[in-house]
Design goal:
Strand content: 15-25%
Distance between the termini: 30 Å
Number of helices: 14
CATH superfamily of the largest domain: Zn peptidases
Largest sheet: 9 strands, mixed
Structural class: alpha/beta
Shape: elongated
Helix content: 25-40%
CATH class of the largest domain: Alpha Beta
CATH architecture of the largest domain: 3-Layer(aba) Sandwich
Radius of gyration: 24 Å
Number of domains: 2
CATH topology of the largest domain: Aminopeptidase
Length: about 500
C-alpha cells in the first residue's frame, strides 16, 4: 500500500472512496464533512436526522454519491465522544476504515486528516497515526494460502488531503515516519506468523541477515561453538533437545560518531518453537508456540525501523534463537548449568526457558558495552492471568529508563503496567543447590515478577527494563490496529524509545 500526503480539496477527489468523520452527538456537520454534505445536497445531514449516522466510535457508514462529486463513495467514520478522542482513536479508526473498504472496486482512498480540525490535535501526530493505522489494519498473512480470497480486494493507495499548503508540508514527513513504523511492525508480524517448520533458528537468522544487509546494518550470528567458547551454558541448555542448531544474532546500528559501546541494547527472546522441553506443555494451544520468538522478531523489525529513521545514537539488537524440544539430549529438571557471567542455575522447569536464553544474551549485551538494556519476551503465562490482553507488563531496576519506555509505548498506542520488583521477591529465585533457580517451585504467585527477577541477576547495575508481552503478542480477532494472529506489539515502542533517547 502507498500512503502519501497532498494539498487538495476532499470534495474534488476522484478516489474510489473519500473519508470524512463525525463526532457523536453532532447533528449539523462542519469542516470538511460539512463541505462534502453540502456537495451531496445534505445527504449526510439527512442520514444523521434519520439515525443512520450517529458518530459513535467504530461506526463506518458508506454513502454513494450518485455522481454529485467525483468520488463514487463517501465514508463517514464515527469518532465517538469528542472529550474521549485522541491520537490512538485515529490509528484505530484508520485501520477499521481500510478493512471496511476491502472490496474489488476500492483501490484508492482519499482522507482528511482526522483530529487536526475541530479536535485540535497536532496535525503531524494525526497524519502519522493515519499512516500507521492504514498499513497495520490492511495486514493479512496469506503466504501459505493456495487460493486467494477473490471476494475481497485490497486498498492500494491512501492519500491524505489538506487544504492548507503549510499544514500539508508539515504532515508529509509525519506520514513517512508512520509508514516506516507500520512496515517494521508488519515485518514482525510476518516473522511471528511463520510456521515453525519454515522459520527455524537458522531460517530466522537468514531473514535477520537480509534485513540487516538491506538496511546497511552490521550483522553477526554466533554458532553453537562460539557460544560454548563464551561459556553460554544457560542458553545452550535450552538448545540441547533440538536437532536445529541455535543462533545468537547481533544487529548493530551506529548513529553517532565517537565513544565506545552502545547507548541502547534491545534483546529479544527467539524460541522458534516451544514444546516446554522435558516439562512438556499440554497439547491444547501448543500450535501458538511458533510465536514464542515474537521478542526476537520485534527486535529485528525495530532495528530496521531505526536504520531508516536514523536517530543519533548507537543501538544493538540481540536475538538468542533456538527451539525448546524434548530430544534425547534435552536438559532435565534438576540439572545445573552455568551462564556466561559464571552464575550457576538450577533448572527446575524446562518450560521456563525464555529467561535462560535471555540471561546469556543480556550478559553479551553488557560485554559489548551496552549502557542501557531493554529486553522483550513472551516470557510468562502469569502476565496474561494478571493483565489479560489489554496491556503488557514492565519491570525494571531503573525508574528513569522505565518511564521512557512507558512514554514510548504510549506514543505507539500500546498500554503498559509496571509491576513491582521489591527485594523480597529475590527469595523466590534462590536455589538450594546453585546460585539461583529458574522458577519458583511451590509458589505459584508472582510468576511474572519471578521471571524478571531471574533476568535481573544478569544485568548488574546497568539500567534495564523487561517487557513481558505474552498476553498481547497474539490477537484472536481484528481490533483497530491490532490484527488477528501476530499483533506486532513492541516494535513501534522500541523504535520510539530509540528516537526519544536520541533527542
Amino acid at each position: 500500500m502507498e500512503i502519501r500526503a497532498e494539498t487538495g480539496d476532499i470534495t474534488l477527489s476522484a478516489a474510489d472512496a473519500i473519508v470524512v468523520n463525525l463526532f457523536e452527538g453532532v447533528t449539523s456537520p462542519g469542516g470538511a464533512t460539512g463541505a462534502v454534505d453540502r456537495a451531496l445536497d445534505g445527504a449526510i445531514s439527512r442520514l444523521i436526522a434519520q439515525g443512520d449516522i450517529r458518530g459513535k466510535s467504530g461506526e463506518i457508514t458508506v454513502v454513494h454519491t450518485l455522481g454529485k462529486i467525483p468520488s463514487p463513495r463517501v465514508v463517514v467514520a464515527g469518532l465517538g465522544r469528542q472529550q474521549e478522542f485522541d491520537v490512538d482513536a485515529i490509528r484505530n479508526l484508520s485501520a477499521n476504515v481500510v478493512r471496511a473498504l476491502r472490496r474489488p472496486g476500492v483501490k484508492t482512498v482519499a482522507s482528511i486528516v482526522h483530529g487536526a480540525g475541530i479536535a485540535g490535535l497536532p496535525a503531524a501526530a494525526c497524519a502519522q497515526a493515519i499512516a500507521e493505522g492504514s498499513l497495520l489494519g490492511s495486514y493479512r498473512f496469506t503466504t501459505y494460502k493456495s487460493a486467494k480470497e477473490e471476494e475481497n480486494g485490497e486498498v492500494e493507495t491512501v492519500v491524505l488531503l489538506e487544504n492548507n499548503p503549510s499544514k500539508a508540508a508539515e504532515i508529509v514527513p509525519a506520514v513517512a515516519r508512520g509508514v516506516v513504523m507500520a512496515r517494521a511492525t508488519n515485518l514482525q508480524r510476518d516473522l511471528a506468523n511463520e510456521p515453525a517448520n519454515h522459520l527455524t533458528p537458522s531460517a530466522l537468522a537468514g531473514r535477520a541477515r537480509q534485513v540487516a544487509e538491506a538496511a546497511g546494518l552490521e550483522f553477526e550470528a554466533l554458532e553453537r561453538a562460539d557460544m560454548e567458547r563464551k561459556g553460554m551454558g544457560s542458553l545452550l541448555s535450552v538448545a540441547k533437545g533440538s536437532a536445529q542448531p541455535p543462533k545468537l544474532l547481533r544487529i548493530a546500528y551506529r548513529g553517532r560518531t565517537g565513544g565506545d559501546g552502545y547507548d541502547l541494547a534491545l534483546v529479544g527472546k527467539g524460541i522458534t518453537f516451544d514444546t516446554g522441553g522435558i516439562s512438556i506443555k499440554p497439547a491444547a494451544g501448543m500450535d501458538a508456540m511458533k510465536a514464542d520468538m515474537t521478542g526476537a522478531a520485534a527486535v529485528i523489525a525495530a532495528m530496521e525501523g531505526i536504520a531508516v529513521l536514523k536517530p543519533a545514537l548507537n543501538v544493538v539488537g540481540i536475538a538468542p534463537c533456538t527451539e525448546n524440544m524434548p530430544g534425547s539430549a534435552a536438559t532435565r529438571p534438576g540439572d545445573v548449568v552455568t551462564a556466561m557471567n559464571g552464575t550457576t542455575i538450577e533448572i527446575l522447569n524446562t518450560d521456563a526457558e525464555g529467561r535462560l536464553v535471555l540471561a546469556d544474551a543480556v550478559c553479551w549485551a553488557r560485554e559489548l558495552g551496552a549502557k542501557r538494556v531493554v529486553d522483550i519476551a513472551t516470557l510468562t503465562g502469569a502476565v496474561t492471568t494478571a493483565l489479560g490482553d489489554v496491556c503488557y507488563g514492565i519491570m525494571t531496576n531503573n525508574g528513569e529508563l522505565a518511564a521512557k519506555v512507558e512514554a514510548a509505548a504510549a506514543a505507539a498506542g500500546e498500554k503498559t503496567w509496571r509491576l513491582p520488583m521489591f527485594k523480597e521477591y529475590d527469595e523466590l529465585v534462590k536455589s538450594d543447590v546453585a546460585d539461583i533457580k529458574n522458577t519458583g517451585t511451590g509458589n505459584r504467585g508472582a510468576g511474572t515478577i519471578v521471571g524478571a527477577k531471574f533476568i535481573e541477576r544478569f544485568v548488574g547495575d546497568t539500567p534495564w527494563v523487561h517487557m513481558d508481552i505474552a498476553g498481547v503478542d497474539i490477537g484472536d480477532k481484528d481490533r483497530g490496529w491490532v490484527t488477528k494472529g501476530a499483533t506486532g506489539y513492541g516494535v513501534r515502542s522500541l523504535i520510539n524509545l530509540a528516537l526519544h533517547l536520541a533527542e
